Amino acid sequence: MNGEDPDSRPVGNDVEINAVSPAPDGSIVLDVAWDAPGEVAGNGHQPAANAIRLVEVVEVFSSIQISSVSNNGATLEVSWTCGAAPFQVQRRNLLGAGGWTDIDVPQGSRTISLSINGGTEFSRVVGQ
Asked: Where do the structural domains in the chain lie, given as residue ranges?
């Protein structure tokens, strides 16, 4: 429905659906059922809906998932899936203390090469 009073809508079974959020895999499933007491103006045999307008899909982003990490000598290649760009990669020396420092500028890519500096560092990817 589009926000109208369901008891005062025009005759017919046109359905408008707004602000639909897909599942994390991108799928949208609509279960539609005929809901009328007996014969309604001779139309008790009609399907639940014979017209569906999908007006707006609200994009849903899952949490960022690191998909691969590979050591290429002096660099560490990190790739991830999900999340919303732009992405900011950050690092810090201690896991439980200190602030995170941005590495480079925010990017749309889902892969980054990090320099291996010889000490212990922790990195994270932050999406918008």
From this structure: 1-60, 65-126
